[in-house]
Amino acid sequence: MTKWILAVVLAFAAAGASAQGTGSNPNSHPVQGYTTTGGTYVSPHQQTNPNSTTRDNYGTSGNVNPSTGAVGTRNPR
Questions:
Q1: Distance of alpha carbon 66 from alpha carbon 17, whole angstroms
Q2: Signal sequence span per UniProt (predicted)?
Q3: What does the buried/exposed string (b/e) look like for 15-37 if buried means 16 or more CB atoms within 10 Å of the residue's CB?
Q4: Using one digit for the tens of pLDDT, what is the confidence trace for 25-49?
Q5: How far apart are CA 63 and CA 22, in angstroms?
Q6: What angle do CA 23, 13, 50 make, to 5 degrees?
Q7: In this predicted model, which residue has the larger pLDDT, 42 or 8?
Q8: Model pTM score
Q9: Burial of 54 (C-beta count, 10 Å sphere; 0-12/13-18/19+)
Q10: Residue 41: alpha-carbon gap to chain centroid
Q11: Is 40 exposed, middle or buried (0-12, 13-18, 19+ CB in 10 A)?
């Protein structure tokens, strides 16, 4: 019984990790690579479209970047 419960929990965890976060903004756009004024190079990437909240950005806790699979860690403002 314990193995069955563990299998179900792992299945749900795997499904959640591959999905876009529940609150992620579904609209995004590509950003070209660029160099900051401080000389740091920023690689090309996808970015959510601007809107009135930071809660749906890929980097915000509870969201997952669909391009990289990275889980957001920032606290929403």
A1: 10
A2: 1-19
A3: eeeeeebeebbeebeeeeeeeee
A4: 888 899 999 999 999 999 999 888 9
A5: 6
A6: 20
A7: 42
A8: 0.55
A9: middle
A10: 21
A11: exposed
